[in-house]
Amino acid sequence: NSDLDQKAKSILIENDQGGYTVPTKGLYPYQWNWDSVFVALGFATFDQDRAWREIEMLFEGQWRDGMVPHILFRKDDPSYFPGPSVWGTNGGPIPSSGHSQPPVAATVIRELVDTDVTGLAHDRALYRAGALFPKLMQWHRWFLAYRDPDDLGVIAVIHPWESGRDNLPDWDEALRAVEIADIGPYERKDTSHVDPSMRPQKADYDRYLSIMAACRAVDWDPAEVARTCPFFVADPGVTFIFLRANRDLLSLAERLGRDAEAEEIRGWIAKMEAGAKTLWHEGLKAHVAFDERSGKLTDGISSASFLALYAGIRDETTMASLQAHFDRIASKVRYLMPSYDPDHASYEPLRYWRGPVWAMINYMIARGFAEAGDTTRAERLRADTADLIETGGFAEYFSPETGAAAGGGTFSWTSAIWLSWAS
Ligand code: DGY
Q: Given 166, 261, 292, 348, which residue is catalytic?
């Protein structure tokens, strides 16, 4: 559909701020970590150089300790809250938020290298991957040191925003345990851009800000944050994305002749393959979140449960149970994959991460199914994503029931996923 291709390209160009792209104007006026990385896939379909630039600019914000922040505040924009002064960080060269986001970069960088398969273009891609490689190593080491300090082989998030899936029901119980700090009055901006019924609630925001206050109190020192943060929940989303990213990082290490690093990464992969069992919920027959502070597993299936396949966890039990969950959920909603199980009491079809479908999650889940040999379910996800975009446009997310567009409009990563996969 060349009209939609054109529209998708023009959204990326429109959201381009000169080397980096905002997710959408107004609602998210800065550079977001995993948004940017998915955006690179979109640029790669018509401008390889620009695709690399997106990721390179993201890594310009890397902290001294290795962390790559979830938001880079390259210039102040009053349309967003909480801005740089609320975060109060000083760990890196560019004002930023204080935590990270799902590490999709190594996977997409490998993808960029694999797309340019011949001659000079391939050499150039490999050269640029080589320049990013040490930064990726540093970032991945940071995740292992400060988001898995007890060596469980799973990655925790210190804030719902770090998971990228902000108001997921999985965080509810852990958030309830967060004491509300003296955060004073504050004015949200998101609900002036988007219908509040599609956004997190005030009770969530009070806790989002309270966690930030606790981290500010230890000056965002990563070891202190890991030790004292009131929220510390192992996330199947970040864990599986990280495990997958390590496999792709290993492939890059091998091609770049980085033998010592390759050996180090093999160790991480082995540890995480074993660690993933920590997230297995025997009753649900799926991977869920694990609250490391309370020692409890959560009780619902989210779209990230399906990312086990993308992470390369494809034993018979996982495969069969995910196929069964997929079919059950498909019988409940018209469009896959809802971000939360429609059979769960906390499911809400239009509220952000409590039910809506997200294009880039579908892309990752589909890759996992395809790589596991289940091309039928992979194709179903692609077709649903294409239908949603064809009828609802390049929205932030969509209702799994009606396909209605929800959240922000003219969204960069939805456009990128259209160009690189769904169309
Ligand atoms: C927001 O502001 O809602 C973002 O999702 C935080 O990353």
A: 166
- CA-to-CA distance for 414 and 420, rounded, in angstroms? 10
Rounded Cα distance between 24 and 35, Å, is 10
- Give the Cβ contact number of residue 384 at 10 Å: 24
Q: Is 170 a catalytic residue?
A: no
Instruction: Read off the pLDDT of residues 111-128 as tens digits, 9 standing for 90 and up.
Output: 999 987 777 888 899 999
List ligand 1's pocket residues with C-beta within 6 A. Answer: 70, 161, 166, 190
Domains of the chain, earliest start first? 2-422 (1.50.10.10)
Output the residue whose Cα is nearest ligand 1's atom 7: 161
Q: Is the pTM of this model over 0.80?
A: yes
**Residues 79-107 pLDDT 10s:** 999 999 999 999 999 999 999 999 999 99
The ligand 1 atom nearest the CA atom of 70: 7
Q: Hunting for tokens 């589909």 — which residue is that?
A: 366
* Residues contacting 2, CB < 8 A, separation 6+: none
Q: What ipTM score was computed for the predicted complex, to two decimals? A: 0.95
pLDDT value at residue 118: 75
